[in-house]
Structures
1.
Amino acid sequence: LCAAQVDFVLSVADMRQLPGTDYPEIAFAGRSNVGKSSLINALLNRKKLARASNEPGRTRQLNYFLLNEQLYLVDLPGYGYARASKSEIQQWTKLTLNYLRGRPTLKRIFLLIDSRRGVKETDEEVMDLLDSSAVVYQIVLTKLDKLKKSEQEGLAREVFEKLKKRPAFHPIVCKTSSEDGTGIPELRAEIASLI
Ligand code: GDP
């Protein structure tokens, strides 16, 4: 995955536009500003492939990237931003639910959690949705460089304890920083194991 050849495939706002299920697929989800585009760019060794979710119009799209003609990486729209209206939240939920139901090739969702903020209520609501769809999700802590070493391990354990009883929760919590590269090789290995 390190030297991945990346093709930006398409932005999907409507389920009828989804690409065929020719490749296994993984998806990245998280609150807006969690560091999702930074993480995807770090994983793929690119500067500006994934763009921040708070750009206008990008909140209602799934962005598909094809890696090495082996795997689709899907950037889900960020959720939980402060000014979101009720209809925007409904739109996000509808898009995500339709997506989850329509993708038999979806192997795993990487659910990003900002290390300084921890697991929020909206994150738990998204996990409820994923639990009900039985799609395995794996927590990725982002911006780990903002915590002291001693706090990092404690947070990972706390998150594990809080979520371990959830049905579709994956027990390995990834600890990453796009800033200093912490955990990026491990996350790449995790993704490669799903191909
Ligand atoms: P997105 O909205 O989830 O795509 O988030 P972005 O990737 O745009 O990041 C949101 C903000 O967090 C930006 O100001 C980034 O520079 C910052 N950020 C992202 N990743 C990291 C990280 O690993 N460490 C630190 N310190 N800041 C980060």
2.
Amino acid sequence: MIGAGGVGSVAVHKMAMNPGIFSDIHLASRTKSKCDAIAESVKQRTGVAIATYAIDADDVPATTALIEQIQPRLVVNLALPYQDLAIMDACLATGVDYLDTANYEPLDEAKFEYKWQWAYHDRFKEKGIMALLGSGFDPGVTSVFAMWLKKHKLKTIRTLDILDCNGGDHGQAFATNFNPEINIREVTAPARHWENGDFVETPAMANKVEFDFEGVGPKNMYLMYHEELESLARFIPEMERGRFWMTFGDEYIKHLTVLQNVGMTRIDPVIYNGQEIIPLQFLKAVLPEPASLGPTTKGKTNIGDIATGEALDGSGEKTFYIKNICDHEDAYAETGNQAVSYTTGVPAMIGAAMVLTGAWKGEGVFNIEQFDPDPFMDMLNQHGLPWSVEELPGPVAF
Ligand code: NDP
């Protein structure tokens, strides 16, 4: 595994809890002390020893050399989206399978798209290896949920809404629950949703709807662009409308609006005291580390899909709501990380298990929608992210 943040920490803990599949775990990241701290926690909690390494994953020859030294079956990329292509290059050079949870994003453009990674398909195929893209919660589980509904409940999915609610309270005026730079780039980008064969763009945070989330209560959720809309539109070609919604509290919106208005979320360089700085990177340096929020975060996350389409059993149009609810304090007690890291790290472990056990096989670059959802869904229930599905009286009105 590469990347020793909150998500990497959860994934390594969960792998160590499944030694039948993960017999030998190696953790490398830019800062080795962070790998060592995770290894220490894993040792204490599970008794499993993990080897640790320092690596700059932007350095393809160094990553290639490390992969050659360790000779793993799979490289799990839980560093940042900026490293995706470099790590895929190292996997190609060494002939090792690849997995990640977030699609590539160039450092100097807040633009995440699958096109750069999909362009690796033929090279991965020729090498006889596989890349599994987007094996977190969203992207990840939200797509598997949609494909499970398509396999077991609906012949077609006409409309799909993904609802991501974090009802957690960390007690800080403003903090992000995962990497602040990635999080802020995502929420300040224009909203886009899929409608009748194309993406429709609207201003960032302009559409809000109140929704009553089980386990959390009523929350405002905002229409946003999220990367799984691109792969879902491709792999559910009949989908007429696909939207992604995320909840934000009023305090979060207030702080973000001010930071944006004063220019602190800019990603172009500015000169300060004769030195070039990127305002958003500076902001990251002064905000709380997401990992530090674990001990104080209380409440639950509730993430799921509402899909409407023609029922498989021929009973006409039906609407289903499928979701997981995860408790921040339970996640922290189990792995030392809050639920946002937990809900991403567990599916990363499960995706890795799918590849290592051969439940999911392929040569080339694949999105999670392309495989049988059932073994993944079974493991969600067994490894801390149980899900439920219910039929709603009709399509959502918002
Ligand atoms: P963090 O910022 O907490 O951790 C990222 C880790 O990657 C850090 O340990 C960092 O090192 C390391 N890293 C950064 N650059 C390099 C590099 N060049 N070489 C080696 N290591 C590097 O992020 P998170 O744990 O919150 O997120 C990890 C990934 O998961 C991200 O890609 C994020 O977008 C994705 N994610 C996906 C979600 C989903 O549901 N699909 C949800 C949440 C996150 P250092 O400590 O030295 O900075």
